[in-house]
Structures are given as structure tokens and as C-alpha cells.
Amino acid sequence: MNRVVRAARLVGVVWYLQLRMFAVSAFEALMQLIWPMIFATSAFLIFRVNGDRELLIFAGLGASAMGIWSAMATAASNLLQEERWSGTLELLVAAPAPLALVLAPVALAMATMGLLSMVVTLLWARFAFGISIPVADISGFLVSILVTIAAMAMLGFLLSVSVIRYRTSWALGNALEFPGWLLGGFFVPLAILPDWVKPLSYVFAPTWGLAGMRDAAAGRSPWLQCAICVALGVAYGVIGLLLSKRLLTSARRNATLSLT
Amino acid sequence: MSAARIVFIGGLLSYRALFNWLNPWIFIPTLVLLPIFQILLFAFMGRQANLESDQFFVIGNAVQSASTPCLWGMTSAIAGERSSRTLGLLLASPAPRVATFVGRAIPVIANAWIVSLISFAVGAWLLRVDLPPSRWPAIAVLVLVGSVSCTGLALVLAAISLRVRDTATLANSMYGVLLIFCGVNVPLAALPGWMPAVSAWLPLTRTIEATREVAAGASLGHVGGLVLHELALTSGYLLLGICILRYFEASSRAKATLEVV
């Protein structure tokens, strides 16, 4: 029981500290809030031309959630590299706390910033473009958002450990942002994507989280999509955990952990 | 002769030293893959919204992709010197400022041109946009004009970087402004009324318009007016950039804030 409490405290403290770190960096604030709004604005300008309200609502919901993926793709990819540059990666690895328990709440903090971006984008859509998104099932909608954030946090965790040996991983994270928006159906339905892309979409948790949000907003049941999103999130977490152990053992053995 | 050496040799050396995105592990994801994915994202959005053709989005986004190396390359010219602690030495040297910074702009333009052409070719190929080979030379010329024009604006940002420390924020914000206002993904006529007034003062707007006309069959001579307008605006931005550079340099010297990070 004591271990569980300590782990919960670690998760809570790391999450809070990471949020504080975001709050003092203008660049992080821009990345989390303004950057997705730039693309949301472009999307709204595209979808408003023909005045189709259904399309605007579809795009509005996708645009609101895109900040969560933006936060994940770039920041999580660069997470370990930042620790490496700060000279704290070895300390984190050598600490008695499991590295996964440190990285997962950091990724969760990034997803939380994504939530803030979601609120800001929804307000931007409402007041700058007059797009109001009707939500028929509020509880289902909120659960879908929370599930999406948790699954994306696990995906961020997996991403951060996967690129531990890629010294310029932030560049990879940048390049992943747009494919994520396409694969997840943030702005376009999966039906218009090429067939070979669809299997990738199905193993991409945000696809299901976003589908849950759209279903809840339209009054349909979001629970199956939420369940798949949770299952994928758990799978990312487990794979990330196993990978972190293996990659860290390898980095220690080859003395490559701190190489920049 | 000395000024020419500063422009060409100094510019190339500084670009290789400061623009660390030339590393292929950064160049390929950031300057090749990212613009291509941007083209795909907006082309699919356009299909979903039933707005314009794939060609419209390939041209808009490929030309706009020149802004990434321009904005980041030029701001790196200041931010990189500052973080390397060599900005003071550079500005204390007797080298003429115009030659120093114009030299840094030339590799930026070349890089932006290459990035934009790669995005153009790959985007067109992926989306099966049929552009007759006879139109590519004129398109390449226009993309070069766009790269020069964007570098003019980037020089202004580089000059502002003498005062504003968060150059990444500056470059990203301007990238967004160009994406939204220059008619990259939405025809200027379909933008809200006040927006085209802003577009008129931004680089790339006329280049994108001219490239679309050339892709539709117009000759380079037919879009000469747009090109001249773009180059005139570029001259204005270059002049403004040099003025801001001189002002902030003098002000930073007076306040001893040049290397404050």
C-alpha cells in the first residue's frame, strides 16, 4: 500500500512540476495553444467557404482535439532529449523510481496542456467563426475527452522511449504532427483516405477517442469507441514499459545514454 | 572584393555552422516530410470541403514551404551567433553589415528553393496532379522569387531577434501568419474582407497567385506584374530589415544587452 501511495505521489508531483515548467516557457505556451489554433483557423477558413454546417461541426470537433496530438507528437518525441541536454537523464535513470513512472506523468502533463488547447480552440471556433458544437451526451463527451487524453499520454510515453537513441527526435515529432491529424480523422473522415492507410488509423488511439467524441456530440453511444481507445492506451503503456526497460539496459551497457 | 568574400564565403560558412537543420536527421523530417504531409493534409481537407482542386493545394503549400527554411535560417543567423557567444564579435568586426547579412541570406534562399521544389514535385506526384513539363521551368523561377521574397521578411525577423530572445516563437508565429493570410489554402476572394488587405503586404501572396496562373497555362511574361510587385515588396522588407538591424544593434550596444540570452 505504501508503494502505491508513493507511486501516486510521484505521478502527481511530476505532473504538477511539468505543468509549472510549461507555464514559464513562452515557447511551450505557443506550441500548445497558438500553434494548433493556426491550423484550426486554416481549417475553419476552408470549411466555411461552402457554408456546410455539418462539415464545420465535424472540423470544429477535430480542430479542438488536434492540440492534444500536437502536444504529444513534438514534446513527447523530444522529452528524453531535453533531459539529456539538461544533464538530468542519467539522474532520472539512476533514481530508484522507475523511469516509466516519471515519463508517463510528464506525457500526461503534455496531454493536459492539450486539453487547455482544446478549450481555447473551442472558444476560438465559437467566437471568431461562430461555430457552436452541439453536444447531445455531455457525460459521454467528457468521458471520451478524458479517455483520449489518457490514451494519447500513453502514446506520448511510448513515443518518448521509442526515440531514446534518435538524437534529433524533435524533428521526427514535428514530422508526425500532420500524419497524426490525417490518420486520426481530425479533419477528414477515414472513408476518403486511401485503403492502405486505414489499418494505421485503427491502431491509432486518437481515431477512436475522436470518434467517441463525435458520437457523443451527435447523441450516439460513444462507449465502444472509448473502450477501444482505452485498450489501445493500455497497449501503448505496456509496450512503452517493456521498451523502456530494454532500451535503457542497452543504453547503460553501451554507455550511450548521455551522448548528445 | 572583400565585401564579395564576406557575402559568398562568409555567408556559406555561417550557414553551415548555424543552421543545424542541414543535418539529414533534421533536414529530411522537417524540410522534406513535413511540407509533404502539410500538402496532403490540406489537399484532403479541400476534397472534404469540396473546395478547389488538389493542384490548388499543392501549389499553395509547396510555395509556402519555402518559409520554413527562410524564417528559421535567417533567425538562426542571429540566435545561433548569440548562443555561440559570437554575436558581439561579429558586430564588433569591421565587416559591412549589409554584406554580412546578405551573405547569410543567399544560402537560405537556395535551401528554401530546393525545399519548395521537392515539396512541389513530390506533392504533385503523390496527388497525381498533372503539370506539363513545359510549365516547370517557369514554376521553378517563381518558386525562386517566393524564396527571395520570404527571405526579405525573414531578415526583418532576424533583425528583431537582436531584441526578442525567443526566436522560435517569432518564426513559428510568422509561419502561421503566412499560412493563413497568403491564400495558401483558401482563395483570397473567399477570405473575410479585412484579410486580403493584410495579404497584400505579405511575401508569397503574389508568388502563389502567379504560380497558380502559370500552372493553369499563363506565360511567365503574363505574370510579370505580380513578380515585380513581389520583388518590390521584398526590397521594402530588406530595407526595413537593415534599418531595424542598425537600430537594434546601436540600442543593444548602448544598453549592453547584445548577448543577454
From TrEMBL, chain A:
<protein>
    <submittedName>
        <fullName>ABC transporter permease</fullName>
    </submittedName>
</protein>
<feature type="transmembrane region" description="Helical">
    <location>
        <begin position="56"/>
        <end position="76"/>
    </location>
</feature>
<feature type="domain" description="ABC-2 type transporter transmembrane">
    <location>
        <begin position="19"/>
        <end position="215"/>
    </location>
</feature>
<feature type="transmembrane region" description="Helical">
    <location>
        <begin position="141"/>
        <end position="166"/>
    </location>
</feature>
<feature type="transmembrane region" description="Helical">
    <location>
        <begin position="33"/>
        <end position="49"/>
    </location>
</feature>
<keyword id="KW-0812">Transmembrane</keyword>
<feature type="transmembrane region" description="Helical">
    <location>
        <begin position="178"/>
        <end position="197"/>
    </location>
</feature>
<feature type="transmembrane region" description="Helical">
    <location>
        <begin position="7"/>
        <end position="27"/>
    </location>
</feature>
<dbReference type="InterPro" id="IPR013525">
    <property type="entry name" value="ABC2_TM"/>
</dbReference>
<keyword id="KW-0472">Membrane</keyword>
<feature type="transmembrane region" description="Helical">
    <location>
        <begin position="88"/>
        <end position="108"/>
    </location>
</feature>
<feature type="transmembrane region" description="Helical">
    <location>
        <begin position="222"/>
        <end position="243"/>
    </location>
</feature>
<feature type="transmembrane region" description="Helical">
    <location>
        <begin position="115"/>
        <end position="135"/>
    </location>
</feature>
<keyword id="KW-1133">Transmembrane helix</keyword>
<dbReference type="InterPro" id="IPR051784">
    <property type="entry name" value="Nod_factor_ABC_transporter"/>
</dbReference>
<dbReference type="GO" id="GO:0140359">
    <property type="term" value="F:ABC-type transporter activity"/>
</dbReference>
<dbReference type="GO" id="GO:0016020">
    <property type="term" value="C:membrane"/>
</dbReference>
<dbReference type="Pfam" id="PF01061">
    <property type="entry name" value="ABC2_membrane"/>
</dbReference>
From TrEMBL, chain B:
<dbReference type="InterPro" id="IPR000412">
    <property type="entry name" value="ABC_2_transport"/>
</dbReference>
<keyword id="KW-0812">Transmembrane</keyword>
<dbReference type="GO" id="GO:0140359">
    <property type="term" value="F:ABC-type transporter activity"/>
</dbReference>
<dbReference type="GO" id="GO:0043190">
    <property type="term" value="C:ATP-binding cassette (ABC) transporter complex"/>
</dbReference>
<feature type="transmembrane region" description="Helical">
    <location>
        <begin position="174"/>
        <end position="195"/>
    </location>
</feature>
<keyword id="KW-1133">Transmembrane helix</keyword>
<feature type="transmembrane region" description="Helical">
    <location>
        <begin position="105"/>
        <end position="127"/>
    </location>
</feature>
<dbReference type="GO" id="GO:0046677">
    <property type="term" value="P:response to antibiotic"/>
</dbReference>
<keyword id="KW-0472">Membrane</keyword>
<feature type="transmembrane region" description="Helical">
    <location>
        <begin position="25"/>
        <end position="45"/>
    </location>
</feature>
<dbReference type="Pfam" id="PF01061">
    <property type="entry name" value="ABC2_membrane"/>
</dbReference>
<keyword id="KW-0046">Antibiotic resistance</keyword>
<keyword id="KW-0813">Transport</keyword>
<dbReference type="InterPro" id="IPR047817">
    <property type="entry name" value="ABC2_TM_bact-type"/>
</dbReference>
<feature type="domain" description="ABC transmembrane type-2">
    <location>
        <begin position="21"/>
        <end position="248"/>
    </location>
</feature>
<comment type="similarity">
    <text>Belongs to the ABC-2 integral membrane protein family.</text>
</comment>
<feature type="transmembrane region" description="Helical">
    <location>
        <begin position="226"/>
        <end position="248"/>
    </location>
</feature>
<dbReference type="InterPro" id="IPR013525">
    <property type="entry name" value="ABC2_TM"/>
</dbReference>
<dbReference type="InterPro" id="IPR051784">
    <property type="entry name" value="Nod_factor_ABC_transporter"/>
</dbReference>
<feature type="transmembrane region" description="Helical">
    <location>
        <begin position="139"/>
        <end position="162"/>
    </location>
</feature>
<protein>
    <recommendedName>
        <fullName>Transport permease protein</fullName>
    </recommendedName>
</protein>
<keyword id="KW-1003">Cell membrane</keyword>
